[in-house]
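Entry:
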Amino acid sequence: MTLTAWFSVFAVCLLGAMTPGPSLAVIMRNCIQRSRGHALLASWCHAIGIGAYALAAILGLGLLMTQFPQLFLWISYLGAGYLVWLASKALRSGPSSFVVDSEDKVHIPYLHSASEAFAIVFLNPKIALFFTALFSQFIAADMNWLTILMLVSTVTLVDGCWYTLVSLLLSHQGILPWLKRYSHWIDRVTGVVFLLIAARVVLV
């Protein structure tokens, strides 16, 4: 995998994590209503779930590439089309109406926060579809385990580190207003990156 391709994956994962949505709501609720420790644990359980989906997508695509190359080619085209569709939605997005309930802190077992964060990923089939679309643009027949490990580690660490940063900064009450104010610009940058990745199918 080239450095350019790796950076594309890195950028998409970072922008995706930064976009306000259900996952961010879960992390912030843990920090606001429970504790920073709950939020940090939830951040990395969420990241593990993301990494598991990424690994499953890569292995499944790798098997298709070796056993059914023509089918893999069509999946690559469909994946590019899905990224274009996501890009069109992102480019048309407006300011976020994302809100988090800020009730008083309550005592919740750490295991509950961990399972809640993992479930928000595991029970969302759109994440599997997204990773299939994303990695179908970069999988190569000669991809080795070191490259696979690098991709899965990138996805996991970007997700975990971003939500860790959110958890640590939330006490200053600055991160949420910033995300709400600039979320539509994050979406638009993400849309451009999606279009560039999808264009690789046509241009390469």
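The chain has one domain: 3-93+106-203.
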